[in-house]
Amino acid sequence: MQKYSNRMVIVHWLTLVLLVAAWFLGEVAHDARHDDMATISGYVFHILAGAAVLLLTFARLAFRRADGVPAPLGDTPMDKVAKGLQHLIYVVLILLAVSGMMQTLGSDVAAAILAGDATMLPKKFTGVVAHEVHEVLVNVLIALVVVHVLGALKHQFMLKDNIMDRMSLRKKD
Ligand code: HEM
To answer: Is any atom of ligand 1 closer than 6 Å to the C-beta of 130?
Structure first.
């Protein structure tokens, strides 16, 4: 197999779009809380985007198992690092969403959403460890994704092995 299956390709790029949306909406919710302007919809949109990322990650793992993945381009230590990085991204994606759920349930966010009452939203997440974990994991994920993208760019433009073709939709014969 030289390329990822079409459904793997679609899930890969959709995950990227939803991840950027979840990140942006998380920052908006964070800033709004600090400005005393937090809204229920601000949290709900962020949570929906984050939950969609989690579902897509599970779908991707299932598709990976069912469809297989293309053979690695090489067997150098750098290729092994790149593979390890991909696995780490899956782990961090799952832990990020789980920590988001835990801070929602471990604070007044869940009760405020259920009551539809923005005044119940927490002003601070003091003592909510999942909140700190979520913040740290966001930064870890950004760092991992940046390295992943730089690796892809190096392959595409310096090694010129057309790696992006593997993550593009197959054309019909
Ligand atoms: C997997 C994708 C996700 C990404 C990229 C993401 C990103 C972020 C970011 C950037 C923040 C702001 C962090 C800061 O304080 O600086 C945040 C906060 C938050 N996230 Fe997520 N998140 C994700 C998933 C989730 C999920 C699935 C939930 C809940 C089910 C969730 C619940 C929250 C809550 C409650 C906050 C606190 C906002 C505040 O500070 O008031 N997140 N997230």
So the answer is: no
In a domain, 25, yes or no: yes
**Residue-number span of the structural domain to which 21 is assigned:** 6-167
**Interatomic CA distance for residues 164 and 167, integer angstroms:** 5
Question: Looking at the 3D structure of the chain, how many domains does it have?
Answer: 1
**Residue 173: inside a domain, yes or no?**
no
pLDDT in tens, 41-75: 999 999 999 999 999 999 999 999 999 999 888 89
Dihedral, CA of residue 41, residue 105, residue 21 and residue 135, to nearest 10: 130
> Each residue of 125-140: pLDDT tens digit?
999 999 999 999 999 9
| Residue 150 falls inside a structural domain | yes
Residue nearest to atom 34 of ligand 1 (CA): 100
CA-CA distance, 125 to 103, in Å (whole number)? 8
Token digits of residue 160: 């010129």
Let me know if residue 73 belongs to a domain.
Answer: yes
**Quick one: which of 13, 165, 169, 163 has its CA closest to 74?**
163
